[in-house]
Amino acid sequence: MTDTVQTRHVPDRLQGRAARLLKSWEALLLGVAIAIFVINSFASPYFLSAWNLSDATFNFTEKAMIAFAMALLIISGEIDLSVASIIALASTAMGLAVQHGAGTPELVVIGLTVGLLCGAFNGFFVTVLGLPSIVVTIGTMSLFRGISYIILGDDAFRGYPASFAWFGQGYIYWVFTVEMLFFVVIALVYGVLLHKTNFGRAVYAIGNNPTGALFSGIRVARVKFILFLLTGVMSGIAAICLTSRLGSTRPSIATGMELEVVTMVVLGGVNILGGSGTIPGVVIAAFVMGLVTFGFGLLNVPGIVMSIFIGLLLIGVIALPRLWAMVAARRKS
Amino acid sequence: MTRFIPLREAILAGAIFALLMMIATRFAGFVAPSNLANVFNDTAPLIILALGQMVVILTRCIDLSVAANLALTGMAVAMINVAMPGLPIPVILAIAITLGAIMGAINGILVWKLAIPPIVVTLGTMTIFRGIIFLISDGKWVNAHEMSPAFTGFARTVLLGLPVLSWIAILTVVIFGIMMARTPFGRSIFAVGGNPHAAVYTGINVGKTQFWAFVVSGALAGLTGYLWVARYAVAYVDIAGGFELEVVAACVIGGISIAGGIGSVGGAVLGALFLGVVKNALPVVNISPFWQLAISGSAILIAVAFNARSGRTKGRIILKSAETAQ
Amino acid sequence: MTTRTAASTSPNDTPIVSMDMITKTFPGVKALDQVKLDLYPGQVTALVGENGAGKSTTVKILTGIYVPDGGTIRINGDAIAFASPNEAAAAGITAIHQETVLFDELSVAENIYIGHAPRTRFGLIDKAAMHRAATKLLDDIGAPFSAHTPLRDLGIANKHLVAIARALSVDARVVIMDEPTAALSHKEIEELYALVETLKSQGKAILFISHKFDEIFRIADRYTVFRDGAFVGDGKIADISEGDLVKMMVGRSVDQIFPTRSHDVGEEVLKIVGYDHPTEFADINFTLNRGEILGFYGLVGAGRSEFMQALFGITKPAKGVCRINGDIKVIRSPADAVGNGIVYVPEDRGKQGAIIGLPIFQNITLPSLGKTSRNGFLKLAEEFKLAREYSQRLDLRAASLDQDVGNLSGGNQQKVVIAKWLATLPQVIILDEPTKGIDIGSKAAVHEFMAELAAQGLSVIMVSSEIPEVIGMSDRVIVMRDGRIAAELAGDDLTPETLVRHAAGISTPTKGAAA
């Protein structure tokens, strides 16, 4: 060691962005999406129809809206399993309002407000009382849907105003639905929020090391609380779209959707333990899940069999790279 | 120096007792021994599954596939019974336990060998198991009249005043009581969840212990699968749908820490009993059964908030005055 | 204590354990390269080396956690290979670790006997026999608690006793002590030394790992030195001087020389009045001036870190006033503290300092994002500029700035944490045990840097348990004892003797402070 090296130069980056992108999870997933698309278009002559493809987007748009917010929440090291129950409660509240003569604007406000309040409720238990989010949201999952059951029992709410149908059944232009517009806008908003803002950076920092983030002067509890609020509001938006599309509310609405949302997020490359993941990844995962469901649907495969595929996909996408690494390591030695 | 765990159980037992007393003031029939036996029998599957889930949660994992495992095993043994009505019940029991254990082992191997987070693994296998039921049954039901009388009768046979289902639950509790307190496996479960890093240094294989925890949970789910189908005399794709959350709820209410390492057999049993009493009491006190979901949700929140408060570790006490004031 | 096993009656120059040509490679790193290590019965062998020398890898190989890629381990002359920690334990090798690696939810007896509890005829754990045996072991080492006590009710020193009882319970032939005194007070360390003597007299071979040279020369019979994963030398402690041992360890001679400082201090920056906490500390008053290094000395558990965390807003004091540049400031969170120019470099770098998983540049800019962004939107070019500036200033060694901070060595991680705080342009920097666990070479660099910071007008609070460091670096020293300020020392009053006296409470006439 000589003393001449006064200022050591550490380069900013070793790898170009392109090289990094090529090796990414998102690239692999995009390959899967394209493969599924090609296979589907060979398997069924009806697949490559603009209207059919447009219909297919309903398979994922509502779930994906929640998945974007959920992605941020999971990256921060928390989880919200109550999202489908928030949809049920928000939808029930809207149905109740309709019985009292509420119009479309009021319904939208009610849907969003219920979502926000549910998110705040979860956020309070997790960030103020410091309880584990998985247990809290398993609890509120029962509680929120339970309230819907108390209000509705075996009944259903119907009679939503005609203008309310716009959200879940409307088209912006040709085959492009209102929900697609929501999907694109929300994806952009969350992409920017996570990847281009200080808030997004804080989310990553908290997910990788909550104590370290706190010691770095980040208001950890506040960030997490906001993330629960966002997830609640997104569930509210999804509730508006889903209720509008179905035209009725039953307490069993969206049952099990939380698992599909989590699957979408994990499939999108978000680490379930927090700390890493991207919005583009979740977007591609949404398409993969939508295309699989749609393609199987065209081939008359029942929904429950599709769920086998989704389950295998969820485990497979994580297991295969690890298996591959294990095999490679064994071959080396 | 008071041990904390029995206190927690005592409070829960007190809450159940108070609940029973409250109901008894207006509906004395509810606390009649015969009705309590009914309540217990009705809660038996939840108790058995909660014990399996407890073992898994203690090792810092979670098993969301228990209800799907139960339903798949139930369907499988029902179809076996239809195909071979003469197969004796012990063989059916062995098949159910083995099938369940195999499904648990699949979860366990993915967690152990591939280090995939348990919540992801069991979310996946949950949907896969349900899907397989549809594949093997073609979506059809197996109804009471297709099953042999011995098959459906076993769980309901009354021995010494209690149905076999109840006795199996009691037996499971006893076995688990001994296993958790008196076997190296039981102690290593606490060690793995309490301090996995240290467990490695004491020669305990963390992944392997988690694997066996999943096998235990799966075996119990399989056992319950047969008992469930026999008791209700029907098997179809959606039986016990969402039951996994009730099982987790029983554990949480019973004071089993989702972070692992803290919990007891007594807690899990009491947590299950609490939910069972609430469920059975609702129709008696004339509250719509639709309230049950919201009540168990609230119970989870209250229980986890309560346990976190009392379990919070005290900081190191440095000041002498503070030490004497304690 | 008087019974000797057959093995130990043989001459003490035949090793029980003999590791030879041991090699262990991890992806990208050769952790151990053909090292050798011998452990002799009834003797303490100190394993000496800087961080990254391969000490912990050696421990993990000896305890069966890692399988070596090459080389042989012989026990009493027989070559063996441990496939699992169980096999190492069965061979009589047991370890007592830095962190107390035990189980809070189990009782003391269960902790001692986990993995090898006495069984009944039915294969169940024989609780009565277990408690009897545990009670005897605890009596032997003079432990002041019962075998039935839940472990969580014990303090850190008593947990150490449990770990030692455990080591005795397995009838270990080899006991590994990995930094056993790191968390202990002076009195507890003396008790540990006595226990080591007991173990020696029972003919056990002891592998002792420590960064403290006084400890090594006090307790070890032999030494083995590793450097950068390679064997450097071994021998008897009696045949070597402290200086030569340090030279072997670092590959050059290092005198512990502290930078010369001007001791010119400016106006008052921070004034703390009457900080009180219900259980941790009370009646803390002091001032800190511009360009000053204020040392905080005390025994482990004197409340220094607890007070610093309150000053930084992590815990809340019940009462007290904090004035910065004369103005009263209320600090309720670390964010408030950083906003008011107070930053804290914690003792636990892995957990509280660096954000492992984020790249270096993002770690450095994390508290300064307000400066490198516009309206809440990130500006990467600005971030890299800031990160470049401070990584150069601290002479950071890394492959690139977008490398995960987790891939850096401990010393370089510490540099990232310090860079992160300097980039916020603070007024007061609190360094909690800044050189703990850092090798001698890096230590000097940290001291140099602290002096430079003070010379530039930054006020430094340094919490340290190392007397030479406290005396060598500080302008003034506050000594804490039992959560209170015991003394404030400067100039000629600042000697090792006064520090120890005040920290231990020897100079106070009112007795009864012996904890």
TrEMBL record, chain A:
- What do the Gene Ontology cellular component annotations say? plasma membrane
Identify its membrane topology class.
Answer: Multi-pass membrane protein
Q: Which residues form a coiled coil?
A: none
The UniProt keywords, alphabetically, are: Cell inner membrane, Cell membrane, Membrane, Transmembrane, Transmembrane helix, Transport
- Stored Pfam families: BPD_transp_2 (PF02653)
What GO molecular function terms would the record report? transmembrane transporter activity
Membrane spanning stretches: 27-48, 60-76, 108-127, 134-152, 172-193, 225-247, 304-325
Name recorded for this polypeptide: Autoinducer 2 import system permease protein LsrD
The organism is Yoonia tamlensis
From TrEMBL, chain B:
Pfam families recorded for this chain?
Answer: BPD_transp_2
- Which intervals of the chain form a coiled coil? none
Q: Which UniProt keywords apply?
A: Cell membrane, Membrane, Transmembrane, Transmembrane helix
Entry-linked CDD domains: TM_PBP1_transp_AraH_like
| A molecular function (GO) term | transmembrane transporter activity
Q: How does it sit in the membrane?
A: Multi-pass membrane protein
Residues crossing the lipid bilayer are 44-66, 87-110, 116-136, 157-181, 211-235, 247-278, 290-308
PANTHER family reported in the protein's UniProt record: ABC TRANSPORTER PERMEASE PROTEIN YPHD-RELATED-RELATED (PTHR32196), RIBOSE IMPORT PERMEASE PROTEIN RBSC (PTHR32196:SF72)
Q: What is this protein called?
A: Rhamnose ABC transporter membrane protein
Which organism was this protein described from? Yoonia tamlensis
UniProtKB/TrEMBL annotation, chain C:
Q: Which InterPro entries match?
A: AAA+_ATPase (IPR003593), ABC_carbohydrate_import_ATPase (IPR050107), ABC_transporter-like_ATP-bd (IPR003439), ABC_transporter-like_CS (IPR017871), P-loop_NTPase (IPR027417)
State where the protein is found: Cell membrane
Q: Does the keyword Magnesium apply?
A: no
Protein keywords = ATP-binding, Cell membrane, Membrane, Nucleotide-binding, Repeat, Sugar transport, Translocase, Transport
GO molecular function per UniProt: ATP binding; ATP hydrolysis activity
Q: What is its main location?
A: membrane
Family matches, as SMART domains: AAA
All copies of the ABC transporter domain together span 17-253, 260-507
Q: Name one GO cellular component term.
A: plasma membrane
Which Gene3D superfamilies does the record cross-reference, listed alphabetically?
A: P-loop containing nucleotide triphosphate hydrolases
Keyword Membrane recorded: yes
Report membrane topology.
Peripheral membrane protein
Q: Name one Pfam family in it.
A: ABC_tran
This chain belongs to the protein called Rhamnose ABC transporter ATP-binding protein
Which source organism does the UniProt entry give? Yoonia tamlensis
- Lineage per the UniProt record: Bacteria, Pseudomonadati, Pseudomonadota, Alphaproteobacteria, Rhodobacterales
